[in-house]
Amino acid sequence: MPDALAVQGLSMSFSGLKAVDDLSFRVAQGSVCGLIGPNGAGKSTILNCLTRITTPDAGHVEALGFDLLAEPIHRLPERGVMRTFQNLELFTDLSAVDNVAMGCAARLRAGWTAELLGLPASRRATRAAYATADAALAELGLSEIRDRRVADLPFGTQKQVELARALVAEPRLLMMDEPAAGMNHTESTELGRVIRRLGAEHGITILLVEHDMGLVMSACDRIIVVVQGRLIAEGTPQEIRANHKVIEAYLGE
Ligand code: ADP
Ligand code: MG
């Protein structure tokens, strides 16, 4: 399998503090890679660099065969690179289905722009977006909350809506920042199954930042462990679980 993501020498400092320190790792296409580490380890900063929200001080990143750090941020969804956020980026006054349908904009850009301009030719695109959104909600078991206002949903359900919105954009590389936060055990177990399916059936490569070790250990093919911005270990879930450095620095805390 070729790599969907190859990170080389990534570094990012905030006024002297090295949040990401000369980090290198690779993620094979269609695999699920966990990114774990204690609070403040630099995980969100890594995702911010890899999705162009922050510009790193140094490093080279190849994603899906292109130079990720040279790509304008607005082109990333079209290129197949998507992310979800630790603290959600949803339109909370809109319904679940409205939020998810908006995720289709990356694919149906022309149609969506036309819609904003009130052009009738776009109606088909809008219908297609809502059909796609309904399918994604169904796949995640969320059909029941289709018309609920996002603000009225529990945080864990909002995270699932955010995932649905990312999926309708048909990502090839999906980065998720703590998707199980706020979920109960049943929800996070189901999320684990969804994540495995995304890789195995849809060939989506996933970089998963998560604190829920049950989810990380069951969903990931490989795991990388970061402490103070540096990679301290990488391997299969079994290898990580047995790694003394990881247990000392993180799992045993
Ligand atoms: P994690 O997601 O692993 O908890 P973060 O990437 O959020 O860690 O943070 C890594 C380090 O960088 C922390 O020490 C944090 O305080 C610092 N940091 C993150 N973002 C900023 C920022 N915008 N300005 C200053 N410091 C930041
Ligand atoms: Mg974080």
From TrEMBL:
<feature type="domain" description="ABC transporter">
    <location>
        <begin position="5"/>
        <end position="253"/>
    </location>
</feature>
<dbReference type="InterPro" id="IPR003439">
    <property type="entry name" value="ABC_transporter-like_ATP-bd"/>
</dbReference>
<keyword id="KW-0067">ATP-binding</keyword>
<dbReference type="GO" id="GO:0005886">
    <property type="term" value="C:plasma membrane"/>
</dbReference>
<dbReference type="Pfam" id="PF00005">
    <property type="entry name" value="ABC_tran"/>
</dbReference>
<dbReference type="InterPro" id="IPR032823">
    <property type="entry name" value="BCA_ABC_TP_C"/>
</dbReference>
<keyword id="KW-0547">Nucleotide-binding</keyword>
<dbReference type="InterPro" id="IPR003593">
    <property type="entry name" value="AAA+_ATPase"/>
</dbReference>
<dbReference type="InterPro" id="IPR051120">
    <property type="entry name" value="ABC_AA/LPS_Transport"/>
</dbReference>
<dbReference type="Pfam" id="PF12399">
    <property type="entry name" value="BCA_ABC_TP_C"/>
</dbReference>
<dbReference type="GO" id="GO:0005524">
    <property type="term" value="F:ATP binding"/>
</dbReference>
<protein>
    <submittedName>
        <fullName>ABC transporter ATP-binding protein</fullName>
    </submittedName>
</protein>
<dbReference type="GO" id="GO:0016887">
    <property type="term" value="F:ATP hydrolysis activity"/>
</dbReference>
<keyword id="KW-0813">Transport</keyword>
<dbReference type="InterPro" id="IPR027417">
    <property type="entry name" value="P-loop_NTPase"/>
</dbReference>
